Task: structure prediction
Amino acid sequence: MSTQTAVRARRPTQQTDAFAADVIAGLSAKPKYLPPKYFYDLAGSALFERITRLPEYYPTRSELGILDKHAPAIASLFPPGCALLEFGAGASTKARIVLRAAASVEAYVPIDISGDFLQQDAARLRRDFPHLAIHPVVADFTTMVEPPLETAAKPRAGFFPGSTIGNFEPHEAAGFLRRAGRILGPGAVFIVGVDLTKAPDILYRAYNDAEGVTAKFNLNLLARINRELGANFDLEAFEHHAFYNAERSRIEMHLASTKRQKVRICDTTIDFRAGETIHTENSYKYSIQSFQALAHGSGWSPLNAWTDGLFSVHALRMAVD
Ligand code: AVJ
Result:
């Protein structure tokens, strides 16, 4: 019984194949990088939850405050009888704030790659919002091209909170906004959460917390590669580096090798120089105006933006034509 489980866990699946290919490609590149979407395995998601509660990490608290305060204004923009699509829904905590204020929404469509979370959460949503149709969709929203069938007959609104858009390069963010516009359709309203540029010391502390949770979150990427791909990263020989790159308006996270070393991953050997880094994340920051300009260039008209001075929530509209 236990042997069978072990064998099943080690057999490469489509997901581990894609993970292995992305890891080898990223660590063979110059400079080395890893895609931030791989932070969120079970351990990484739990660490991110802890990050959102850190005193230094203001974005989640700020956004929840803004949504709470302006939920009625946000809800008033939704087309009557619409379906609300959330891109990368997770636990839907933020959508609930909006949905409580939005009697005009008939269906909620959380889209996420993690099917387990989605199904559990759908059951809770159905209980808490008995008059709302809940249609979870298991999909990678970054590659999605068609609106989910369940929403075909309804006008649509979109929700993309959390400044997840900051993980994209600005040209990728523009591409995503354009594709979201095609999925949501003419007349759609799109609510997007975007972290703001601000004093570099505030940004620095948000990604270098005193408790070291962000460092653990970053290093978990190597732990995950060890766990899932049988690699031999020595977690003691890499350290968390996060800093604000003012020229490019982004926080960069890296994992720096403390010494010259070799690491084995699936029959591949990766060499590290002392001090060489793996670039693990960019978190782009925008001003209200720079984000509105980006959205406008992707076919969206800025309707409104709410802010507490640290974070912003934007309402955009797609022309009807
Ligand atoms: C989930 C991408 C918005 O960029 O602030 C938090 C991820 N990384 N601490 C962010 C993150 C380090 C977070 N996003």
Summary: The pocket of N,N,N-trimethyl-histidine is lined by residues 51, 59, 162-164, 166-167, 207, 214, 281, 283 (CB under 6 Å). Residues 196 and 287 are 5 Å apart (CA to CA).
